[in-house]
Amino acid sequence: MMSEHDNNDLHDDHDSAGHGHGHVELVYQEALPINNGKVCLWLFLSTEIMFFAALIGTYIVLRFGVAGIWPAPHDVHVVEFWGAFNTFVLICSSVSIVLALEEAKADKAKKAWSWMAATLVLGCVFLGVKGMEYNSKFNHGIYPQKPRSLIYERADVYYVAAVRDALNDKRREYNEAMTDLLQGRKREELNEDEGKEYDQAKVEYEKYNDLYLAGPKYTEGLIARDVDARKQEDAIVALAYKVYPLSRFDSRVVDYQHREEGTLDQQQREAEQQLDALKNTDLPESAEQQKLLTDQVTAARERIASIKARKTVFWGEHGHAEGAEDVGHGQGWNDQHQLHLPMYIPNGNMWASTYFLLTGFHAVHVLVGLIAFVLLLTIRLDAKSAGLIENVGLYWHFVDLVWIFLFPLLYLF
Amino acid sequence: MTEHAEHDPDHADDHDDHPHVGKQVFITVFLALTVLTGASFVIGNYGLSMGFSKQVTWVAMMAVSCAKAGLVICCFMHLWWEANWKWVLTVPTSIMAVFLVIMLIPDVGCRTGKYSSERWNRAATDSDQVQQAAPAHGASKSNSDTSHE
Fold this sequence. Notes:
The complex is a heterodimer of chains A (413) and B (149). Chain A has 413 residues and is mainly alpha-helical. Chain A has helices at 4-19, 36-64, 80-105, 109-139, 157-182, 192-225, 229-243, 250-280, 287-315, 333-336, 348-377, 386-412, and strands at 151-152, 343-344. Helices cover 72% and strands 1% of the residues of chain A. Chain A has a two-stranded parallel sheet. Chain B is flat, with a radius of gyration of 23 Å. In chain B, helix 2 runs antiparallel to helix 3 (54-76).
């Protein structure tokens, strides 16, 4: 700190140097004209600026230099309103801590305490909303990394296989439940409660079996038959869209639906004709040939069943090739049936990594701020502690500052 | 540090306490911040339907953010009323922060500009993009076309 004495010295030096007489005396200035706590806090904030600049800068560069398309907010359950709400909450908390400082400077400890408490509450609200937002992502299988993350970045055979396995597990689960209930008996032999349970399990089994046949199983058949990579990808994107619809695929899937539905009718007619032809053939004499014929009939029936499932379960839910506006979000199998099937979100993993890293580090800073508020609330917030409040306030404003940039970047871009 | 005594008459009397700032200033800044947040929200959500291009809304939102940051730094963090030491800390860190981002651009930000078609085939994107991807501008162009329907 600069004393009156130092100032006089400086002036004297200046004067004497200016007149060319005497010698120049170097004066030792011991520190910045602010108290040590504030110097330390500003040095800390300088490192924090660079820390968040690195994180935000990396995000900007990755997001705008991305290969392909970055997930839209609604693709990954980002709700703009809550981002704006949290921004407002942080602004309010910045004002309340500034007012706490003003009251403390005026030596009004009680008022300062109230404003500080309000700041603490607002900080908690922010973290609460953040937790709710994280929860909605976790519930939909959006995690920063596997094995919990259900995000797939490519529409390829591995994606289809993952969906197939997940649905098969579900199907098998209810099939086993049915077998366990029966214990070798028939449905009619079960008592009333067991019967109800069995029927419920059967309904579930049939639901998942239909999804399994109409979705991944049919898609895998298509991929095996058609070698055109573009058509294969169309089929996989259609499956991914049914599981978890992304609005950017609306028109592509509707186009594909038109094309496939034409061939589905034809396929069904052919399969039915085949079945009729098989039925009309005379029963051959040898047992071997008889078995072959019954196998063919079963195969033809199964094919018809799977084509029908494709028509009704896969495409039928929204009527016959309706416009894209009818197949909006929340209509995917994951949401309709509370399933956790793998989702195709191009660049979803990169999105999740950056989102959770940025918001996570910010949330940790908020948490540290809240701890500081709690500690401050235990002391008397009068003029003597104004310096302390000022330093905590500076930190808190910085936390607010970071969010001011994160909000548009993460929610609105 | 001799700026106090020598060439800073404006700040000559604010040794380590700031001049008293009225509460009205804070309330005004609070209102301004709220209005600016609303502006970002409107630009982000309705900018495209108002006929602005994606890039224009991005620039507008970042400008709003910078304005908000300026208000918080100057008013709430009292930097407006601080002595000249403020430059010693803020200018070097800001330069480092900005240069850090700039230095990432050629290596990371523009990496897709040199992607071969082979590499594009393995990129996390659907084939629409691969077909459109004229190197340098492919990715950013598709960005502006999609997302936010």
